Amino acid sequence: MPHVSEIAPDLYRISVLYPEINLQFNHFLVKDDEPLLFHTGLRRMFPEVREGVSRVLDPARLRWISWSHFESDECGSLPEWMTIAPHAQPACGMVGALVSANDFFQCQCRVLTAQDTLITGKYRFRYYNTPQLPHGWDAGVMFEETQRTMLCSDLFHQDGNVEPITERSVLDRVQETLTAYQAGPLANYVPYTPNTGRILEGLATLQPKTLAIMHGSTFSGDGAKELRGLAGVMQDVLSKPSYQFPKCADAESAAD
Ligand SMILES: [Fe+2]
Ligand SMILES: [Fe+2]
Question: In what order do the strands lie in the sheet with 165-166?
């Protein structure tokens, strides 16, 4: 069952827990004249996310469906949403639209940039492209300018069944989660590039008050400080070489 909570005015966090992997998947719904859903959820999660949206508004009223980067939890169930929300239009960054979404979904995405805003009524969203952060050439974040809410996608990823919103820094949890990922089969989930710190500093200058996080608790407070702290955590955990070229048993025996 989804857990629905209002984390900022008219912004609902629809959370679905996957206990098998100890991970929350959070989808963000904006209740406004032109309702927006950010993250469609995985295809197998569609019934739960639809149930969560239905508790806030009629899903047929959705006008905008958006995401950060092309990945199943971000936009996998877009086709299912389009069948129940006939007036909805997908919206994403230029790279995402050109490289994947327009072709894969056979649709025409509205292309979002930092130069214009997507206005839903009372609320105003601006899209900032953040290539390879958290991952993917097409990645970006959305920023709602009236309430200063940042829709962060996978940034600040925290494992566990955590509270919907917290005013305590989540950086310890993020460090713990990224460190655990680096030691397992999902290592290098978030690349560290020469642009990582620059992008996070750019996002910090927006001074968000709320960080709406896809996996883990939403953070309410000094978002600039938290983003600058994330830059430090990422540098600490992710900037060291970690890649091991896979060993192939067959190749070794062939060389003998
Ligand atoms: Fe992702
Ligand atoms: Fe994700």
Answer: 118-119, 124-129, 140-144, 149-153, 210-213, 218-220, 165-166
Q: How far is the CA of 61 from the centre of ligand 1 (A)?
A: 27
Question: What six digits make up the tokens of 181?
Answer: 């990922």
* Nearest residue to 34 (alpha-carbon basis) of 64, 1, 68, 77: 64
- Residue 250 is predicted with a pLDDT of 77
Cα(124) to ligand 1 centroid in Å equals 24
The contacts of residue 186 (CB under 8 Å, 6+ apart) are none
Nearest ligand (C-alpha, residue 40): 2
Q: Which residues pair with 218 in a beta bridge?
A: 165
Q: What is the pLDDT of residue 175?
A: 98
Q: Which ligand is nearest to the CA of 158?
A: 2
> Do 50 and 83 form a contact (C-beta atoms < 8 A)?
no
231-248 pLDDT per residue, tens: 999 999 999 988 889 888
Using 50 as the pLDDT threshold, list the residues of the chain that sit under it. Answer: none
Residues with CB under 5 A from ligand 2 (ion): 73, 154, 214
How many whole angstroms from 251 Cα to the centroid of ligand 1?
33
